[in-house]
Specification:
Layout lengths: L1 H4 L3 E8 L2 E6 L26 E10 L2 E5 L8 E6 L1 H14 L6 H8 L1 E6 L25 E5 L4 E5 L2 H7 L11 H4 L1 H12 L9 H7 L5 H5 L8 H5 L6 E7 L3 E8 L20 H13 L16 H5 L6 H20 L1
Parallel strand pairs: 1-5, 5-6, 6-7
Antiparallel strand pairs: 1-2, 3-4, 3-10, 7-8, 9-10
Helix pairs in contact: 7-12
Length: 337
């Protein structure tokens, strides 16, 4: 409550129309902090909005005036974020903060503090442990809440986390060794609930070398190209550019897009380098499990499972990458005989 009263924009899970969603809250009691379960969407839209203007301009009397968008300086706290979603923000950092920084994303990231909430139970679709994650992972977290039998254990992880806690921590009780063991208990309990075999790191090279393998068409047969998977993914970063203008003014906008859309790579000339569903679905799988190799020592998929839970065709990207690696290896073995 002190964060809200102090002028920060606090974004936390709330119940809205039967869904758990991240929304700015006006009071602490509005936050819906459960010990398990994810929000429908990750909080990435508060760093990388669904749609935003990059600049606007006006034309008058032969003079063009260009205006950058206003950037808020209000501190932002993403509160109650799941570890998988915090890892997703790290993947977005690799896109928007490497090389030439995206100024809008960088400004939001600089003023944002991330407080995660460790998962005391796994949803049926969760597979964070299969991609190197954990229900108590701290990647991308400035502070983490760990559910106890009564109350919460707070871990302060970064300078941002320390600044957030501030003077309030002086009246708190230091965790005992027994309370600290709760983290290991959660890890063991939740990991046992996730019935997924690990996705092997060496498969990254195998599936990329099998770029032209015919199995991609078979594996993508049931994909509808709806791109629900991309829109609920914590680490997807694709966007399209749109120009909205008339004779006197206009603005350049970017909006979320997805590589599984048929028009995503459609050129103005009419050419499309990825004309088939298999080619487009292959792009998604490789982007999550192969193309990032060499840039970072992790998959871009964080195993949140939203795409699995919400795919209308019942596709499971974890099963797909396993099937692709297996099929490509078998094809290679047959060719070697």
């Amino acid at each position: 409550q002190s964060l809200v009263e102090g002028g920060a924009s606090v974004v936390a899970p709330v119940e809205e129309d039967g869904l758990s969603l991240f929304r700015p809250i006006a009071a602490a009691e509005h936050a819906h902090l459960e010990t398990s379960g994810k929000t429908r969407w990750s909080p990435k839209e508060f760093l990388f909005p669904r749609s935003e203007a990059l600049y606007s301009y006006t034309f008058k009397g032969g003079t063009v005036k260009v205006k950058d968008p206003e950037v808020s300086e209000v501190p932002q706290v993403l509160f109650g974020v799941r570890p998988c979603d915090a890892s997703g923000l790290v993947r977005l950092d690799e896109i928007f903060l490497s090389g030439t920084k995206d100024p809008l994303y960088a400004a939001r990231r600089d003023r944002t503090t991330v407080v995660t909430s460790a998962c005391a139970a796994a949803d049926p679709e969760c597979f964070c442990t299969a991609v190197g994650g954990s229900p108590v992972a701290t990647e991308g977290s400035d502070a983490q809440l760990v559910p106890m039998d009564e109350g919460w254990l707070l871990l302060v992880l970064t300078e941002k986390g320390e600044a957030l806690v501030g003077d309030a921590a002086s009246g708190w009780t230091e965790a005992s060794n027994r309370e600290a063991e709760r983290i290991d208990e959660i890890l063991k309990t939740v990991s046992e609930q996730i019935e997924r075999s690990p996705i092997q790191k060496e498969w990254s090279k195998i599936i990329e070398e099998g770029f032209e393998d015919p199995s991609w068409d078979r594996l993508a047969q049931h994909c509808l190209g709806c791109s629900i998977c991309a829109y609920v993914c914590p680490s997807c970063s694709c966007f399209d550019m749109n120009h909205d203008a008339n004779a006197w003014c206009g603005q350049q906008c970017r909006s979320w897009d997805a590589c599984t859309f048929a028009l995503f790579t459609h050129h103005a000339s009419g050419h499309n380098p990825r004309t088939t569903k298999g080619e487009r679905y292959r792009q998604r799988v490789l982007h999550k499990f192969s193309f990032s190799e060499g840039e970072a020592d992790h998959f871009r998929c964080v195993g949140c499972g939203r795409c699995v839970a919400l795919c209308p065709a019942g596709l499971d990207i974890g099963e797909i990458v396993t099937a692709a690696a297996t099929s490509i290896q078998e094809e290679g073995a047959d060719a070697a005989r």
